[in-house]
Amino acid sequence: QVQLVESGGGLVQAGGSLRLSCAASGRTASSYALGWFRQAPGKEREFVATISRSGGGTYYADSVKGRFTISRDNAKNTVYLQMNSLKPEDTAVYYCGARRSVTYDYWGQGTQVTVSS
């Protein structure tokens, strides 16, 4: 069992930055790949970024490539999402997920990110 708790969301102006954190609890948290997803009002949840168990492999959605950076600190069981050059279309609830294979097994409750124009 893995519990995920996101934090760091808030209101920011377009062009600004935020850093999201997701703390994972459980003895085997470091054995999971972690990812960030987001869901805007009236839209389906969409993939943002993922990072491998070791942190050596990352993959991004085209919409955030070059602006967002995912990283993890396994000593702290935490994954981060550094978001720069934010746009109003980045407004969404951001969720952290954990997976051992292709399918995500665990999800956090989400943190709201609002980007004003």
3D structure, described in words:
The chain is mainly beta and 117 residues long. Helices cover 0% and strands 54% of the residues. It contains no helices and 11 strands. The chain has strands at 3-7, 10-13, 18-25, 33-39, 46-51, 58-60, 68-73, 78-83, 92-99, 104-107, 111-116. The strands form 2 sheets. Strands 2, 4, 5, 6, 9, 10 and 11 form a 7-stranded mixed β-sheet that branches. Strands 1-3-8-7 form a 4-stranded antiparallel β-sheet, with no helix packed on it. A hairpin with a 4-residue loop joins strand 9 (92-99) and strand 10. The termini are far apart. The relative contact order is 0.32.
Q: How would you concisely characterize the structure shown here?
A:
With 117 residues, this protein is mainly β.
**Assembly level:** single chain
Q: What is the mean predicted local confidence, pLDDT?
A: 95
Number of strands: 11
Total of helices: 0
Based on helices, strands and strand pairing, what is the structural class?
mainly beta
Head-to-tail CA distance between termini: 40 Å
- Principal-axis shape equals globular
Roughly how much helix do the residues carry, as a percent range? under 10%
